[in-house]
């Protein structure tokens, strides 16, 4: 590990001042469950670390509504996952957190830091023996011609096909969340749809926040489709594993029993949280049946570009979408 400076500001305002005075090698430390790993692997080598995880200003959880729920960036994943109102009114959000990582990690990790976690591509974390454009731009990509079983079938480029590894952001994407951020140039709000970016020619750039910007809170509009929702995660083992395919789904029905609002977003298959508007349109105005849910799943996975070892994600994904919609429909108020 390389030497670095460490600062623990007492307030958000102080944190902004520290970030304004910091150089480009500065990293924000929240729960530390990703940053410490990457520092030990020498993938992240910050010159300065600004620790915000004790800032109580950032830890508030507000599920009193009525129009939106709000989660401070430093709220712990476990605390948000266990919120009884969230579990009842927005099960997809609560489940996306409860099915992530392990209990110990969820006790430490924050809902703001979770949004910006880096990929689990084994070549990215495997060190200099493997070329990796994300770790070292221009060096190549070991996943091409290598083992790409866990890699993306949507949103990839010629430089990188690493999947976005998170669950929480996938559920937030399905329900049009926004992220409030603060930095030396003031406050702004970023739609979750605009937070993460595809790799393109710059796979080392994963999101649209500046290095001196701090996530303050995440806000989610309360919607009927939130009540009828689920986060369905398929993985190699039932705990402490990343998604092969995951689906955040929500539905709300009109008075006639047809779907009037449908939300579908995918995880584990794309380079960023992947919303599926074409699949949502398949169901909107239709009855939710086994057949229509499968049609929505097929629409969600149309246009997938699998590699050598991950074509199985298409069939698995179609069926996971259908199953998620069934669960969501059973929970929806009719
Ligand atoms: Fe690196 Fe992306 Fe290739 Fe993985 S897929 S080795 S992260 S460039």
UniProtKB/TrEMBL annotation:
Keywords assigned: Oxidoreductase
Gene3D superfamilies per the UniProt record, alphabetical: 3.30.465.10, CO dehydrogenase flavoprotein, C-terminal domain (3.30.390.50), Uridine Diphospho-n-acetylenolpyruvylglucosamine Reductase, domain 2 (3.30.43.10)
Pfam family name, one: CO_deh_flav_C
GO molecular function: FAD binding; oxidoreductase activity
FAD-binding PCMH-type domain mapped to chain residues: 1-225
UniProt key word Oxidoreductase: yes
InterPro entries per the UniProt record, alphabetical: CO_DH_flav_C, CO_DH_flav_C_dom_sf, Diverse_Substr_Oxidored, FAD-bd_PCMH, FAD-bd_PCMH-like_sf, FAD-bd_PCMH_sub1, FAD-bd_PCMH_sub2, Mopterin_DH_FAD-bd
Protein name: FAD-binding PCMH-type domain-containing protein
Native species: Planotetraspora silvatica
């Amino acid at each position: 590990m390389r030497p670095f400076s460490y600062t623990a500001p007492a307030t958000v305002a102080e944190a902004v001042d520290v970030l304004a005075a910091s150089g480009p090698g500065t990293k924000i430390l929240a729960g530390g469950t990703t940053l410490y790993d990457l520092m030990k692997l020498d993938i992240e080598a910050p010159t300065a670390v600004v620790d915000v995880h004790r800032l109580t200003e950032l830890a508030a959880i507000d599920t009193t509504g009525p129009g939106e729920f709000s989660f401070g960036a430093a709220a712990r994943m476990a605390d948000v996952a266990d919120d009884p109102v969230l579990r009842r009114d927005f099960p997809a959000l609560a489940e996306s957190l409860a099915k992530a990582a392990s209990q110990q990690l969820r006790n430490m990790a924050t809902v703001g830091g979770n949004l910006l976690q880096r990929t689990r591509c084994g070549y990215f974390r495997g060190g200099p023996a493997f070329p990796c454009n994300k770790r070292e731009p221009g060096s190549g990509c070991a996943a091409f011609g290598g083992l790409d079983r866990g890699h993306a079938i949507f949103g990839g480029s010629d430089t990188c096909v690493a999947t976005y590894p998170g669950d929480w952001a996938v559920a937030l994407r399905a329900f049009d969340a926004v992220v409030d951020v603060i930095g030396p140039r003031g406050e702004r709000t970023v739609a979750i749809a605009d937070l993460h970016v595809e790799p393109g020619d710059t796979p080392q750039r994963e999101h649209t926040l500046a290095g001196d910007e701090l996530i303050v809170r995440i806000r989610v509009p309360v919607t009927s489709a939130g009540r009828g929702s689920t986060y369905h995660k398929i993985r190699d083992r039932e705990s402490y594993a990343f998604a092969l395919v995951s689906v955040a789904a929500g539905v709300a029905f009109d008075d006639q029993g047809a779907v009037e609002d449908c939300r579908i977003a995918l995880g584990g298959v794309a380079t960023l949280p992947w919303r599926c508007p074409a699949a949502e349109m398949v169901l909107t105005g239709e009855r939710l049946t086994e057949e229509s849910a499968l049609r929505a799943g097929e629409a969600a996975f149309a246009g997938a570009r699998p590699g050598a070892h991950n074509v199985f994600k298409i069939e698995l994904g179609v069926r996971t979408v259908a199953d998620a919609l069934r669960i969501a429909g059973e929970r929806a108020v009719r």
